[in-house]
Amino acid sequence: MMNKKATRLRRARKTRAKIAELKAVRLAIHRSNLHIYAQVISGCGSRVLASASTVEKDVRGEVANGGTVAAAAAVGKVIAERAKAAGIESVAFDRSGFHYHGRVKALAEAAREAGLKF
């Protein structure tokens, strides 16, 4: 029997392979119980071009708890602004095997609203 982490990583593998094949800039996210993290990673996969998370001081000022949908939306907005500042308009969304629901969905929709295309 597979554990939760192995199952999630198995789900992530196909998406990551496809994004790597396209050599697209990807918006990778990671969700833990307490926080949510987002990174914009270059097409070659070796450089982080922008990042945001609920651990950062300026995001923590906005939200009290990092493990909420509101916190995820705040991170989505910040990552979109930072990506645009770095000159990135469109990305491929890498949800790292997490289901597109709840906090993952909130982050994605906030990033789209802030003008990131994916």
Question: What does this 3D model show about the protein?
Answer:
The chain is an alpha+beta fold and 118 residues long. The protein is 45% helix and 18% strand. The chain has four helices and four strands. It has a four-stranded mixed β-sheet. Strand 1 (26-31) and strand 2 form a beta hairpin. Helix 3 runs parallel beside helix 4. The chain is globular, with a radius of gyration of 14 Å. The model has no long low-confidence stretch (mean pLDDT 95).
CATH topology: Nucleotidyltransferase, domain 5
N-C termini distance: 34 Å
Which spans have pLDDT < 50 for at least 5 consecutive residues? none
Question: What is the total domain count?
Answer: 1
Biggest sheet strand order reads: 3-2-1-4
User: At CATH's second level, what is the architecture?
Assistant: 2-Layer Sandwich
Major sheet attributes: 4 strands, mixed
Shape: globular
Rounded Rg: 14 Å
Q: State the share of residues found in helices, binned by percent.
A: 40-55%
Number of helices: 4
Task: Name the beta content range.
Answer: 15-25%
Order of helices and strands: HEEEHHEH
Mean residue pLDDT: 95
CATH C-level name: Alpha Beta
Task: Look at the helices and sheets and give the structural class.
Answer: alpha+beta
Give the number of DSSP strands.
4
